Amino acid sequence: MTFFLEQLIIGLSSGGIYAIMALALVMIYKSTGHVNLAQGEMAVFSTFIAWTLVQMGVPIWPAILLTVAVSFVGAVVLERVVVRPFAKADDLVVVAVFVGLFLSIHSLAGVIWNYEVKPFPSAFSDGSINLMDDLSIRAHTLGSLLTTGAVLTAVWFFFRYTRLGLALRAAADNHESSRLVGINVSVMLALGWGLAAGIGAVAGVMIAPVTFLDPGMGLAPLIFALAGALLGGITSPFGAALGGLIVGVLEAMISAYVPYGIEFRELIALMLILSVLLVRPAGLFGEIVTRRV
What we know:
2 strands
């Protein structure tokens, strides 16, 4: 039972990271109608910025907060300069733009910081915390779980109870109706990109101490986050967050109880993506869209 509880907490900690990345994917999808394939690379680039600040002597938490701010501004500029000109282009063109972003950010990170694996310091202590007499969990695992939980709660409060959050939700759901009631859709879409990048930066600095830091670090979390977003519903922020938690727990349980499960966990995520798309494309909580032909 103790081992099961340990794996459950580990799964929830990883799932929290997938949940906030899935939430970032949903925010971009609802505003553009496309999955941001570069979301993982954006998170990795932000994590490298945090690593650089730490190497310069900035304490870890101020470095994280500064990284979130830089990521926010950078994503707003990216949306304006790179994504906005193709807003009305064909779907294939938009997908090509996202693929180009993925390759460009990945290559730029490699050029600036090279492809050597780097250790990333945890924002929490290096020790373990005893939850029970025979249950001890790493401080980073618990700290990551609490941090991602706080981010999810803050984002929920922002979208549910603030005027700016409600305006952002409205702009993402219906551009034309939002313009009619006086919402500046252009500003809201840029804000959505900035928030998604800031959330992704938090995910990056939480997962880097576990996996170490290198330019290719973001691909696996992106796959798991996409699986969670599709499972919960790519149009539902709540569903995407819940889906990310489910995927994290599923990953931990398979790695712990299935022989060699840790070797093919990415394959499980891909199978989950395909299964959801075949059985229920809208996910558990997503909107089922019907079109008259």
